Amino acid sequence: MNAPSASAAQTVKLDITGMTCAGCASRLEKTLQATEGVVKATVNFALEMAEVEHLPQVAANDLVDVVSTAGFEAKERRDEAEAAKKAFEEREAHSDAEERKTFQLFALSTLLAIPLVIPMVLMAFGVQFELSGVLQFALATPIQLFVGARFYKGAFAALRHGGANMDVLVSLGTSAAYLYSVYNVFFAAQAQATDLYFEASAVILTLILMGKYLEIRAKRSTSAAVRSLIALRPTTANKIVGDKIIPVSISDLRLGDYIVIKPGECVPTDGLIEEGESELDESMLTGENLPVHKNKGDQVTGGTINGAGAIFVRTTALGESTRLAQIIRLVEGAQASKAPLQKLVDKVAAIFVPVIVLIALATFAGWMLYSGDVTTAVSASVAVLVIACPCALGLATPTALVAGTGAAAKAGILIRDIEALERAHKVDTILFDKTGTLTIGKPVLTDAQAFDRNDDRLLTIAASIQLGSEHPLASALIRAAEERNLKLTRPRSIKAIPGKGLIAELTGQQVSIGNTALMKDLNVAPSMMGDGLVKTYESSGKTAVTVALGDRAIGVLAFVDQARDSAREAVESLKKQGIRTVMITGDTELAAKNIADQVGVDEFQARVQPEGKNEVVNDLKEQGYRVAMVGDGINDAPALAAADLGIAMGSGADVALETAGVTLMRSEPKMIPAALDISKATLRKIRQNLFWAFIYNIIGIPLAALGLLSPVIAGAAMAMSSVSVVTNAMLLRRWKPKNMS
User: Fold this and answer.
1) So where does this one cross the membrane (predicted)?
2) Cα-based distances in Å from 218 to 25, 384, 394, 582, 729
3) How far, in Å, CA of 240 to CA of 312, rounded?
4) Are 143 and 109 in contact (CB under 8 A)?
5) Fewer beta carbons within 10 angstroms: which end of the chain, N or C?
């Protein structure tokens, strides 16, 4: 059927229970995709989650019904803070219960299986010891009924809905061994101990259950990072109403509410400090181990932990608009994304089980024709069925992706999706915006030279028209004016000229502040004194701007922005990886060269207008380079989007999360090579996992079909294939950025 239009599509996330392998996920994904009104559906086996993009006429409950009809259970994942926290706690409780139940079954199964294994062990040492067929039946039957029930249930649900999964293979294999043994004990005229496979069916189920238990624990471990982020979501706040402090639910807060955060409390939502100061622990969001000092006017982020001081905060974002909610969405989205290779794996998984059943039947028929020995034929075909379970295939990519993006998020590196990982792996050129990336981004006013020698008047005028501006130079001017206790006047008719400066009306006069290009555009009369000052300041590596009243220049201001301490180390690290480094800035040639020399970039481009950054990116791409653009995520949004990989540094603002493939939560240049490193490490793990997942089957199935693999060994190999894949992915949790303080 044709996919419906996505113009008005909505997205819902569903928590799925009942999936046992990649085949289940693939079948459910196809079922959802075929549902009328569904634009796109992605089912993640490792995360036990479905993300469905659908048209408004399709309700979330309708999708839950579709999942139920397909033989699984679903529950909508809510985004509101309180609902999300409650749903998270319910998922945790369900996971704990599932883990506990699986372990109890495994313990029971092990106790019953041990006596069945003892004769096999003794035989290896030359000791002949056999249990009677009836006793073997008594020990194996509870395992077949109670442990096997979970596989029978899954197999029946899959077959009833026209599919086949791992449960079908396990059920067929163990049932064949068990029923063949029952026949020989109770109905065959004469049966030898070698004709009994009770120990095979019992041990296979026990080993697979052990694998499932280890898999559950490992899967929860790989997703620990995003679970810890969700756990940070506060549900209450202390709201100030009049002269009272009233505890309220987060859902009852409104923008602009005044709240107090007491020492040691979790910050309930994003806001600005209006009173008080403290040190906040932001490590869970940024990876920064040291507490960050916060004072009046500073931004606080929901989910961080307050230190020893009480702070009074005005709320600026709520619910899904908060920084924490955006981070959770981004990390979950990355973990749910699919690699192109995974799509091929899904196609293989969809046809895998029927093919294996045919191979098993062919194996049975082949051995019967070759030897006429039913026992050998049953053993070989059961081994084929058991070893071929496709769990490892379904876990290979998502577990590595979950672990890698989780480890990155813990370090303050947010990776949007698998495509961003792949692009990061191929980057050979990194383009840096200068201000706020390689430099601190907080220029300091070093010189204020008024032509009439009234420097305070010059500074008052210049700072006044910058009130409300977000530009770094504006902040420097206002700070300098406040230090001199100058009284500022709010301007009118403010107009920013990108890459040049600003024009405004102040007390009835037009005031402009900007570079030489702006002064020429406004026909401001040049002066020898002004031109000389600008050249003098720029030759010393400073940024110089002219201030004009109407068409008359009244003075020159000079600023300096320091290079970040770790910028040179970060650039050298990138160079060692063979990556070309380029800095672009709107500053003059001399100011740009000053910073470029300090940090050691390969080359730089000066006097680049904001819209020109796009052109630089595109020019490099046309030359065949794989370009990553590093910027602050606000002014550089178009260039971030145009690059092969956009890296937004130190903002976490909406536009950064929307345009950048990677967002760094700290303004730390050394996180740039770290982001490339975790990307390469994650892709390496994905390839390793897929290799191991396929190699088990490629080697194991022929060996089983040739009778060289007993059903018990096949069961152990099958269980260990899943465990090894997930354990290999878990190693990524130990990843930490190199050379980070």
Assistant:
1) 105-127, 133-152, 164-190, 196-214, 348-370, 376-396, 689-706, 712-732
2) 19, 26, 14, 42, 9
3) 9
4) yes
5) N
User: pLDDT (tens digit, 9 = 90+) per residue, 678-736?
Assistant: 999 998 998 898 888 888 888 889 999 998 988 888 877 877 787 888 888 888 888 88
352 by DSSP, 3-state: which?
A: helix
Strands 258-261 and 244-249: unpaired
Helices 340-370, 391-410: inter-axial angle, 10-degree rounding:
150
Beta bridge mates, 311 = 261
Average pLDDT over residues 328-343: 69
Other C-beta atoms lying within 10 Å of the C-beta of residue 61:
10
Among candidate residues 20, 733, 162, 3, the one with its CA nearest the CA of residue 402: 733
Could you tell me the pTM of the whole model?
A: 0.72
**Tokens 């064949």, located at residue:** 176
d(CA 420, CA 428): 14
Residue 337 near residue 418 (C-beta atoms within 8 A): yes
Helix (H) or strand (E) holding 414: strand 413-415
**Structural contact between residues 637 and 659, judged by C-beta atoms closer than 8 angstroms:** yes
Report the C-alpha gap between 232 and 468 in whole angstroms. 33
Q: According to DSSP H, which parts of 566-710 are helical?
A: 567-576, 589-599, 610-622, 637-642, 654-659, 671-705
Q: According to the 3-state scheme, what is the secondary structure of 634-662?
A: CCCHHHHHHCCEEEEECCCCHHHHHHCCE
707: alpha, beta or left? (left if phi > 0; alpha if psi -120 to 50): left
- Give the chain's radius of gyration (CA, Å): 33
Number of Cβ atoms within 10 Å of the Cβ of 52:
27
C-alpha–C-alpha distance, residues 409 and 398, integer Å: 16
Residue 59 has which token pair?
């309700």
Residue 393 contacts by C-beta under 8 Å, 6 or more apart in sequence?
22, 345, 348, 349, 352, 690, 693, 694
The C-alpha atoms of residue 121 and residue 265 are separated, in whole angstroms, by 59
pLDDT tens-place string over residues 156-200: 887 887 777 778 878 888 888 888 888 888 877 555 545 677 888
Going through 223-342 in order, the beta strands assigned E by DSSP cover 236-241, 244-249, 258-261, 270-275, 278-281, 292-294, 299-300, 305-306, 311-317
CB count within 10 Å of CB 482 equals 11
Per the listing, tokens 């392998």 go with: 21
- 739/741 Cα distance (integer angstroms): 7
Cα–Cα distances (Å) from 339 to 196, 344, 400, 467, 697, in that order, read: 45, 9, 11, 47, 21
Distance from C-alpha of 136 to C-alpha of 185, rounded to nearest angstrom: 10
With contact defined as beta carbons under 8 Å apart, do 64 and 76 qualify?
yes
Q: Could you give the residue numbers annotated as active site?
A: 433
**Whats the size of the chain, residue-wise?**
741
Residues paired with 272 in a beta bridge: 299, 314
Output the pLDDT for position 213.
83
Residue with tokens 């401001």: 524
d(CA 235, CA 249): 6
Structure tokens at 170: 């396990």
- Closest by CA position to 13, among listed 332, 475, 376, 369: 332
Supply the angle between the helices 198-222 and 148-160 in degrees, to the nearest 10.
80
